[in-house]
Amino acid sequence: MKFDQWARPATLWLITLTALLSGCTTYVTTQVTAFSDWSGSDANRTYAFSRSAEQQNNLEQATYEQLVAGELAAHAFRQVNLAEARYLVALTYGVRQDTMTVAQPVYYANPWPYYWGRPVDPWGPWGPMAPFPAGYVNQSYPVFAHRLSLRMTERGSGKEVYRVQARNIDEQPALVYAMPYLVRSALADFPLGNGVVRTVRIPLSPNTPARSELPMTAPASAMPVAGAASAAPATVKTGQ
Q1: Single pTM value for the model
Q2: Of 121, 133, 153, 179, which is most buried with the most CB atoms under 10 A?
Q3: Tens of pLDDT, residues 100-135
Q4: How far is CA 122 from each of CA 49, 134, 224, rounded to the nearest angstrom?
Q5: Which CATH code for domain 27-102+141-238?
């Protein structure tokens, strides 16, 4: 068979495969940790937001409170004046920069691209799609850990009844893009049991600006470097 006779169907197959893969759903992966002493009922789920001095008259704080209020409403919570609230809800949030180091596979091109008058097999031991890499090279890149913590206390007694933290890691530093997913993940299946740790995956909204999501750990295709030390983390911003 001539090469061009083989190349045409192979090219069409690769185009089809690329189209299928491009339609796959991307997920935002969030780790959620909850501590609970919850015994409230739907009848007394009234609340008001509690703010620190820094959070007063803060547009960013107000924006995030609206997201939280929307999710709390789905769990029969009703926002009221401070004097009428049974619970106080406090938000803290922030972004922390760190560095992730992974080992990426390296494939070397065949120095003899043709043998016996035929092109090299791309899946052969020298090809770019070879089954075994020739080696690995360490690569480091910045990542950003987004965090949201929600704390519920009884207004009358000050007793803490529920605390939940949601955290995800992304290449995108802006917290505003991550916050809708943090809020939904933190309040999914409210109330969680005491000491529960779980992972929540939410499909990426098509309206979210272009971003490249990273899972909580290094991707399966990347080999973590044993003993690799991360760069000293730096706090980018905080809502505390």
Answers
A1: 0.67
A2: 179
A3: 787 877 765 555 555 455 555 555 555 555 556 667
A4: 60, 14, 27
A5: 3.30.160
